[in-house]
Each structure stands twice: as C-alpha cells, then as structure tokens.
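look at this:
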Amino acid sequence: MARTYETSLENDKLISLSADELINMLIEAEWDDRQNRNIERRLRNARFRYQSCMESIDYQAERNLDRNQIMRFAECNFIRKHENIIITGSTGIGKSYIATALGHQACTLGFRVYYANLGKLFSRLKMGKADGSYLKEVSKIERQDLLIIDDFGLLPIDNQNRSALMEIVEDRHKKASMIITSQLPVNCWHEVIGEKTIADYPHFFIMQSNFLNPFINQSFINN
C-alpha cells in the first residue's frame, strides 16, 4: 500500500483523485499485492519440477490435444468436485508439462497443490519410516487440494510402496483431487501395482474413469 502511494506521488496521480478514490485505489493495490504473494507462496510449496502454465501449452495437431477439454480442466471444477485426472502417453509428449500447467493454474485460483515424482515420493516416505517423519509427510500430502503424481508405473512397486500408495489414495477419496501421469495405459495399472488385495483398492477410480480421448481422461468419483 505504501509503495503504491509513493508511486502515485511521483507520478502526480493523486492530484486528480478524490479522498474516496484514493482510499479505494490503495485498498485494491493492497489486495492485489497480498493475492500475488499468496500465489507465489503456493507455487513454492507445490515444488513443481517444470515451469509451465496454461498459456504455454502447445496444441499442435499431431499431439492430439483437445484445447476445449484442457481449458475446461483449467477452470479447476474437477478440484471443487474432488475428481481426478489421468494423463497417459509415451515419453516426450508433454504429460508432466500439462499436469504442471494445470497445477500452476490451480495455485493461481487459490488451491493448495503438491507435485511429486512417484519414485522420489516413495523414497521420501521410506526415509520417513526410518527417521520418524512419515506421518508428517503423509499429513502434508493429505492437506493438499490437488496432488500431482508424476511417472506412475515407471519403477517397480514393492510391498512398502504399495501400502503407502493405498494410504494416499484412501485419504484423498471423495475429499481431494489427484492428477496422475503415466506412460502405461490404465488397463496395465493393476498389474503394476501388484499384490491383489492392495491393487484392487486404488484401481477403483481407474475403473470409474470417463474416457475422454486417447491422451487425457478424467475420473468421476460417485459421492
């Protein structure tokens, strides 16, 4: 607010403003400044691997991207409805980039977002089991409005990781949203997760997904 006032003095802008207009201008400037700082804080806390935004997504014809579909996702109603998005496809087609762009958009709209490469997340959780920080890490994930899990199925999932995955998915069921990227088609996920009793649980939201196109599909979890 003080910075806005000083700038206005330097530009002689205050001369033409009434007292009410001046107060309104300063309040709006303070509001904008706080909003921008909040967005910056959410972006830092998200720990995005890539710097991407909706405006920088490339919609070339060969990528088979539905611009209208992605722009609908950018409204973030799927987060408000506690729905999930699954992005699948081969290496290098921009799965992580699009997931991050959607996460960036969610941050600007006021949602708490957390990005994690699945392999690195499993490593942190295993370390947490050893040093006693596991519950803190899981609790942090649970508080996020949107969890982005990148590179699902890239590495084998052992017993401990399967249990952690089940706990994360269970905590978010009907409470918060996820975006998952994977090179594997969803019909291979059950096999990747492995042990049947655990594999069946996170598989529920895959089975209930609404297939939208070969590149992105969105899951609708029944309330």
Remarks:
- The chain has two domains: 2-42, 52-219.
- The domain at 52-219 is CATH 3.40.50.300 (Rossmann fold).
- Residues 190 and 200 are 7 Å apart (CA to CA).
